[in-house]
Amino acid sequence: MTHWIENIADELSKKDVEEHIIASGTSISGSIHIGNSCDIFIANAVGKKLREKGKEAKTIWIADDNDPLRKVPYPLPEDYDQYLGMPYSTIPCPDGCCSNFVEHFEKPLLNVIEDYGIEMEAKSGYEMYKSGVYDDYIRISFENVNEIREIFNEYRREPLAEDWLPYNPVCEECGRINTTYAYDYDGDIVKYRCECGHEGEMDIKSGNGKLTWRVEWAARWKIFGITCEPFGKDHAASGGSYDVSSVISEKIFDYPAPYPVPYEWITLDGEAMSKSHGVFFAPDEWLKIGPAESLNYYLFRSKPMKAKDFSPKMPYLDFIDQFDKVEKVFYNEEEAPSEKEDRKFREIYEIAQINAGEPLPFRPPFRFLVNAYQIAGDDLEKIFEILKKNSQLTKSFEDKEFDDLTELEMSQYRERVDNVIYWLDTYAPKFVKFQVQTKKVPNLPLTDEQTQFLDALADLIEATEFSDAKELHDAMYGILENLGLKPQKGFQAIYKMILGQKQGPRAASFLLSLDKDFVVKRLRKEA
After folding, report:
1. Which entry of 16, 106, 382, 504 is 20 to 30 Å from 393 by CA?
2. Which residues bind ATP (predicted)?
3. Which residues contact 171 (CB under 8 A, 6 or more apart)?
4. pTM
5. Which tens digit of pLDDT belongs to each residue from 168-202?
6. Are 329 and 308 in contact (CB under 8 A)?
């Protein structure tokens, strides 16, 4: 069984074309997040796979920046509703940091495209209209308006008016594009009326207007020779944009509709991503908590139409554990649970990988680093010692010392620790956070049995050199059993004395990560 990206590339390879053009598009109506940028990641993966198969393939990204603003996106002020209905490219930058609204919301994505290994040519819908790219297709649409109207009406409950044209001029009075109605034309001159009360004429060559979406989509398939395009499931609904545009593409523009790759939306903590409500998670934010490959893995580990929910909070630790496991299996550092899982892991990581042929990245376990960082602070060498002491390094690194790390491995290590720091500061719940109380013994009550347990544990740690956390863990349970003390009470006593709270990380690993003399003295309440 092969990966779905591979299957798409195989299907496209059968087409008799000189070059495959895989298109993606994003409406610049606000922040671009991991949900509405799926097009880009899928298109890039398909193009990459085609090139691996020896096919000519190029990926393009079209910014739908000539569409009207329908909702004020988060975190813009309410007074931005004055721009509702206007093309995105004509709206000013909300912070005055960019040339306009579009650049402001495009920048965060375009700044990290290289980090994700994405190769694409960026196009602007607004500039395409202004430069005349669409002019001939507007003329063809007007000449065939009756047939286009019939195609639309087949999918509509209420038929379009007889004077309807598949085009919306920008009103020269109010600047809006979604409130105008084009009803007649003479050559390149379009007559329109606007809901603001204005009636006027517009020359299509001015670029101050746009084809209605389903006609525009079909036109650009022909303009660029697009052979494959991913898009959200809303466009794939029966009678939706793809169905209608496909008919228009073939009947009006004499071009076969591209291979469709519909995908399911991504939810965030169970809630639909919404730019207007501020519910979204962006690709640049992802890089603050994980490597670029991990987002690829998230997107490609399941089929595109499978529901996906992402949480950067506690569930993220399970996710990044899984990613690390897959990566280590790919690099033969660990074994997969079964042969079937082994094939699956390698297949997915091969798609997710950005720089093929590079050596195993040095990414110590994220979950363990959450604790190690809070113990050692931002001291990479000290954290490395804790990793070694707790057998947290895989076989390629277990015999290495800190100074043996290459420049690349050190940068990957630094990146992973920075990811952990950001996750702790931004998404970690309170119960994950702790601070070792080094200056004085916390004044928290203990039972006599808990005190006995701590004394016995101090004696054990002082007299024994433990090779790993499991050995200490088993010895701790032996003491608890002898004293008839419940494990929960025993561990609470450890956390009270060292952290000044009732809970903390796994006790055995935690104790081995601390200075031995400090642990012994603290358990005896001596320092």
Report:
1. 504
2. 275
3. 177, 179, 180, 192, 194, 196, 198, 200
4. 0.94
5. 999 999 999 999 999 999 999 999 999 999 999 99
6. no
